[in-house]
Design brief:
By secondary structure, the chain is mostly helical. 65% of the residues lie in helices and 5% in strands. The protein has two domains: 30 residues; 155 residues, Winged helix-like DNA-binding domain superfamily/Winged helix DNA-binding domain (Arc Repressor Mutant, subunit A), CATH 1.10.10.10. The chain has a two-stranded antiparallel sheet with strand order 1-2.
Length: 186
């Protein structure tokens, strides 16, 4: 029965997505020193918003999570001195979140480590496979009609070109190493 296969696949995809999200977060945390993966992604979300749009609601929307979850993350990151809250110029009831200089520095440090993590995660993927995966994930994200407010635009925190080049070279090294191991095993 085709319906059984369809139900089986939906269950397996859901379970795998759930487990994968947790695994990526746990493994990602091992690469960073000063932040968790969730804290780093929160700083990235802030950096991808214009300065007058960095409200709790907008950060939560960018991350695809709840305001309560973002409030907890903001509190922790603020205690570390990486962000400050400032009154919103647009809405007196809201606050905007601003990344401090030390927050920018720790974000740059983590961004470099994130590139190492990405090299490890995607070493067995071709560019075409990554393109397809991203397309399918965006399609899945909009199951409820809402488009993902992603991270495509440039952020206020950019890695130096030399660091990007170094990371791409490491990614290429990892991919070649993985390819050689696969070819040896075939």
């Amino acid at each position: 029965m085709e319906n059984h296969r369809e139900l089986f696949l939906m269950q397996q995809i859901y379970g795998t997505l759930f487990s994968l999200a947790n695994k990526v977060q746990i493994q990602g945390d091992k690469y960073f020193k000063s932040l968790t993966s969730r804290q780093f992604m929160t700083l990235l979300a802030i950096a991808h918003l214009s300065e007058d749009e960095t409200t709790i609601n907008n950060i939560a929307k960018k991350l695809g999570t709840t305001k309560q979850s973002v409030k907890q993350l903001i509190k922790i990151i603020e205690e570390k001195g990486y962000i400050v809250t400032v009154p919103s110029q647009k809405d007196r009831r809201a606050v905007n979140i601003k990344i401090t200089e030390s927050g920018k520095q720790v974000s740059l440090d983590c961004a470099g480590k994130a590139l190492e993590f990405f090299a490890d995660i995607f070493k067995d993927f071709t560019i075409e496979e990554m393109d397809i995966l991203w397309s399918l994930l965006k399609k899945l994200y909009r199951f409820d009609g809402e488009e993902q407010d992603g991270f495509e635009e440039n952020a206020g925190i950019e890695l130096a070109e030399a660091d990007q080049f170094k990371a791409l070279k490491e990614f290429e090294r990892q991919r070649n190493k993985s390819r050689n191991v696969r070819e040896k095993n075939e």
